[in-house]
Amino acid sequence: xxxxxxxxxxxxxxxxxxxxxxxxxxxxxxxxxxxxxxxxxxxxxxxxxxxxxxxxxxxxxxxxxxxxxxxxxxxxxxxxxxxxxxxxxxxxxxxxxxxxxxxxxxxxxxxxxxxxxxxxxxxxxxxxxxxxxxxxxxxxxxxxxxxxxxxxxxxxxxxxxxxxxxxxxxxxxxxxxxxxxxxxxxxxxxxxxxxxxxxxxxxxxxxxxxxxxxxxxxxxxxxxxxxxxxxxxxxxxxxxxxxxxxxxxxxxxxxxxxxxxxxxxxxxxxxxxxxxxxxxxxxxxxxxxxxxxxxxxxxxxx
Length: 302
Fold this sequence. Notes:
Radius of gyration: 20 Å
Mean pLDDT: 91
């Protein structure tokens, strides 16, 4: 956007703030690598470490079911149907395009959205600025909602089904929701909010209702990462090893369960709330696209 267009859109004061913020971000990206040069850097689990995690789960008698989605050509058709705009998550060349679309497609497949009636309520939890709920309403006629702690973005501010709302204390009536999903979101539920979400799901789900969490992020040890502006400031759980992630900003803490903490913090509370679960592992990543990193998928049912 040209300088003149920016001034017209934001005014002189707004344009000055945008320019100042841009300079700060550039300086931060120059300084932070040196400032945090000795901080432990986060790395995703390798394939061998994922196998180790599955072995750790087995030792705790937690079953992991192989998940091979329906024929990949169905996912490829979903990609071609343009459910998301080209700029979504950085666009088609971002390296995560296939992954982000896959998460929504798998959630839809496991929930069976294609068989729902217009009155069935679906909730995209921690949706941020995702167009998914809007697309489900427009294309499939579902009663879809999007909720997030953050204020509703300008593109959705006038849509009553996009809500700024705490997922652990929602406005949905008891036993009113047929299904929900969290795409790359559950790991951001800080403190006890991962447990509190389970209790809220038990309240709002109707009998037979489901929630899909994917990816369910895990590691060989209980840990979390933060981006530079939050690292070391107490956002991670006290018993989780904290790492720093240097390739982005805006993440106070992203939790990665080990097998024991997953059982204690998530799976046991699911059963205590009167719900059941199935833990899946995605097996045919290579057939589904490039850069696919989703591995564990948690399916919760009432």
